[in-house]
Design a protein that fits this description.
Number of domains: 1
Strand content: under 5%
Distance between the termini: 44 Å
Helix content: over 70%
Order of helices and strands: HHHHHHHHHHHHH
CATH topology: MetI-like fold
CATH class: Mainly Alpha
Shape: globular
CATH architecture: Orthogonal Bundle
Number of helices: 13
Radius of gyration: 25 Å
CATH superfamily: MetI-like
Length: 299
């Protein structure tokens, strides 16, 4: 075989081998992710109840979904949790990042402490905070034993306040991760620009307000995408911390979907709620991906 033939054969296998390696993973993703999305979409238009029923029922499952009081409550809880979760995580993460950006001596010890909660699963976080906030076991009981008999913290069992316990636990777990994102953004800002601003007499507050924070806009956007995605699909934290209760005071779309699909034998309605959640997440992520790809094409 000529050297040119050997080269073309080697080039052919170099091009083909990566495709062969990736093909099994691609096929599995195609089937187990996109295949089940398509199946769930079909079920959401069917007459399925306890078991799948492939007879179509039009948009009636979606009508039942939007007429359900439990779904309305779940959306209201998601709005409360999502807004507070995103805003507090971003604010706290930015403040912690600014603190660590001051080159303090104990930065190396503080970063692992702030990031540690993110290494835990939401099940562990929810269980730990459930013990801590339980009036008969945690904070309230400890304060009573210390002599503060009038102290009361019953948010976990108070239907009006229980949703905020989920916010507390979620912020505790995720704010360190957001801090790391902002810290990376702060460390990427051109120091020469900051030195020039200092020479012009700008105060630290002015530099953060007019130079540093505006340049962190991509980090804010990335943090929003990540946090919004986590808020919409929140399930394990809610189940571990409150179980969706008291009553349905902390029910979320994800808990609604599981309950209607597997407990209430209304699979079509549960599938419809899953599709609504998927469309909401897609409405957040797709524009972000489009803008990122568009910027890379222009570079």
């Amino acid at each position: 075989m000529s050297s040119q033939g050997k080269y073309s054969s080697r080039h052919f296998w170099q091009q083909l081998l990566p495709k062969i390696v990736i093909a099994p993973s691609f096929a599995l993703i195609l089937f187990f992710v996109y295949g089940f999305i398509a199946w769930t979409t079909y079920i959401s238009f069917s007459r399925s109840r306890m078991l799948p029923n492939y007879n179509l029922d039009g948009v009636r499952p979606y009508e039942k979904l939007w007429n359900s009081l439990n779904w309305q409550v779940a959306l209201e809880n998601l709005a409360i949790f999502g807004i507070l979760y995103i805003v507090i995580c971003c604010a706290l993460g930015l403040l912690l990042a600014i603190l660590l950006d001051q080159k303090i001596r104990i930065e190396g010890g503080l970063r692992p402490i702030f990031l540690y909660p993110m290494a835990l699963s939401f099940i562990v976080t929810g269980t730990a905070w459930k013990w801590f906030l339980n009036p008969g076991l945690g904070l309230e009981k400890t304060m009573h034993e210390l002599g503060w008999e009038s102290f009361s913290f019953d948010w976990l069992i108070n239907p009006d306040m229980a949703i905020y316990t989920i916010v507390i636990a979620g912020v505790w777990q995720t704010s360190g991760f957001v801090m790391a994102m902002f810290l990376a953004g702060l460390r990427g800002i051109d120091s020469e620009m900051l030195k020039a601003a200092q020479l012009d007499g700008a105060s630290s507050f002015q530099m953060y307000r007019r130079i540093i924070i505006p340049q962190l806009r991509p980090v804010f956007l990335s943090a929003f995408i990540v946090l919004a995605h986590m808020a919409i699909k929140s399930y394990d934290l809610v189940i571990a911390l409150t179980g969706g209760g008291p009553g349905n005071a902390t029910a979320m779309p994800a808990t609604f979907m599981y309950s209607y699909t597997f407990s209430r034998n209304q699979m079509a309605v549960g599938s419809a709620s899953a599709i609504i959640m998927l469309m909401t997440i897609a409405a957040i992520i797709i524009p972000y991906l489009y803008s990122e790809l568009k910027e890379k094409k222009h570079e």
